[in-house]
Amino acid sequence: RYGEALPDMCSRSREQLQEVLAAGGDTLLLSTELVENFSLQDMQSLRALLRSHCDALLVLASFRSPGDSMESLLQERLKAGAVLEPGNLVGRIRRKYENLAAVFPLELRPLNYHAAREHPLGLVGAFLAELGLPRAVIEGMDLGLVNERMSAECYRLMRAINLAWPRRRQHSHGVQRAPQDLNVLLSLPGAVFQLEQDADFQAACADETHWLERQLGFEFPVLQQGAADPLWQQATLAELPVLLRQLPAAELRESAADFLRDEATALAAARPDTARALREIAGGLS
Questions:
Q1: DSSP E strands, the chain
Q2: What are phi and psi of 192, to 5 degrees?
Q3: What does residue 63 show for φ and ψ, rounded to 5 degrees?
């Protein structure tokens, strides 16, 4: 994600952490989405470093259901220019818990992400309350963050473009990519994105969910699969040409056009008017 800037970023971050630890204070809060993916040695090194400067150490980790986590992760990786396959993500949340529990067995305090979302103070407010901040202090903060999920049409478009021109392989295909260079598509309205699940996938998710619930001591909500709305409704088609023309490279736009032509072919018999509109939009990108 950081490319050639990674070594410099790590060096500067390490210096900043050392400065903060040397300065001292009552409480140090470190926030990251990556610590559970560290190597065992790196996690142990981090724990030893923090323990050498702190009287007490708490690892507050938020856990969401495997199915919900997968939907979020698939979208986040698409925005970063990559494509993940859902089947390869089964077991990922279990491994995250196992990694944390192995290194921080006494310090780990799991939080139920889904319960925290319903907290009167919101998701971030629930986290801060768990840390011990007074409610009055939290209520005075501006925590009105919005993290809307992408539409199903946006997901499918991003996936097709990233499959054609994956960001991490630009050295081989020559198309310049940057993190979040497809974010212009995030405003595309459309159907609600839902993870497609076959019987084997559902069973694997259920097994992981039940294992986690036993370890964590709380239950996850059942991931509801509602009836899928038809794709490419009028509101989506109206916004689509404007957004696609804002893609930063001709190759990305052409991949989008190829995808729309494939969609038109699939819809030609059942929805000829929609298929015709998709072909016209694709033609305008060439």
A1: 59-63, 108-112
A2: -70, 130
A3: -120, 135
pLDDT in tens, 157-179: 999 999 999 988 888 899 989 88
Helix (H) or strand (E) holding 137: helix 135-139
CA distance 143 to 128: 11
Beta-bridge partners for 112: 63
Match 């990786």 to its residue by tokens. 77
- In angstroms, the CA 69 to CA 64 distance is 6
Is 153 in contact with 190 (CB distance < 8 Å)? yes
Mapped onto helix, strand or coil, the DSSP state of residue 206 is helix
Q: Measured between alpha carbons, how far is 38 from 20 in angstroms, rounded to an integer?
A: 22
* pLDDT of 227: 64
Q: Give the three-state DSSP class for 112.
A: strand
Please say whether the beta carbons of 232 and 278 come within 8 A.
yes
Nearest to 267 by CA among 254, 257, 258, 279: 279
